[in-house]
Amino acid sequence: MTKILLHICCGPCATHPATVLSQEYEVIGYFYNPNIWPYEEWLKRYGAFKKFCEESEAISDYFPKIKSPLTPLLQRGEEEISPWGGGEGGWEEEYKIEHQKYLESVKGYEKEPEGGKRCPLCFTLRLDKAAKFASDNLIDIFATTLTIGRNKRPEIINSIGQISADKYGIKFYEANWKKQDGALKGKHISDEHELYRQHYCGCEFSL
């Protein structure tokens, strides 16, 4: 079965897309979301991502792997892979470095409303990283869960995904996961796994 890298923004949003994709692909989950603020919230969302990936038959493997996602400073070990692809120090330090990259990528657009001009810049940062990870690991196609969000515009996200795929010489799986009650189906699966559900998009500007 062909592998597909699924960029996952959070555990609940992964449930429906992963279930659908697993009927055709071997799904590899990937969590890269440095927009999330604060660090404690990032840990909660990573924890939900990890929980679903380990419990669901829809996902065959996932990255990064962290032993104890709710420990403030996580020590490296042979089973751990950095969410950021390297760096020194604890996970919180690495989080701060990557979150700063996010802040720099949206500089000048901090006051934009959710769904405004800031969001495509955020999508680009995350999907570009996912496409590179897929290419580096010889995965020829990638997808994202982002289009399942009620305030997320699929035409913008899919366009950015395709640009990132072209950049790294791979394919992008275009989808609108909201169609056919996708969000409702995902909620049912999320409830079955008792996943943490956040109450805002992610960055400090969306609060």
Number of domains: 1
Oligomer: single chain
Alpha carbon gyration radius: 16 Å
Strand content range: 5-15%
Q: Can you list the strand order of the major beta sheet?
A: 3-2-1-4-5
What is the string of helix and strand elements?
Answer: EHEHEHHEHEH
Structural class: alpha/beta
Helical proportion?
A: 40-55%
Unreliably modeled segments: 68-79
CATH class bucket? Alpha Beta
Q: Tell me the CATH topology.
A: Rossmann fold
Q: Report the count of strand segments.
A: 5
Q: What gap, in angstroms, lies between the N and C termini?
A: 41 Å
Shape: globular
The overall average pLDDT, rounded, is: 91
Helical run tally = 6
Major pleated sheet: 5 strands, parallel
Q: Name the CATH homologous superfamily.
A: HUPs
Q: Which architecture does the CATH hierarchy give at level 2?
A: 3-Layer(aba) Sandwich
Walkthrough of the structure:
- This protein has 207 residues and is an alpha/beta fold.
- The protein has a single domain, classed as HUPs (Rossmann fold), CATH 3.40.50.620.
- It is 43% helix and 10% strand.
- The chain has 6 helices and 5 strands, in the order E-H-E-H-E-H-H-E-H-E-H.
- The chain has helices at 11-21, 39-55, 91-105, 118-136, 154-168, 182-193; strands at residues 3-7, 26-30, 59-63, 141-144, 171-172.
- Strands 3-2-1-4-5 form a 5-stranded parallel sheet, with helices on both faces.
- Helix 4 (118-136) packs parallel to helix 5 (154-168).
- It is globular and about 45 Å long.
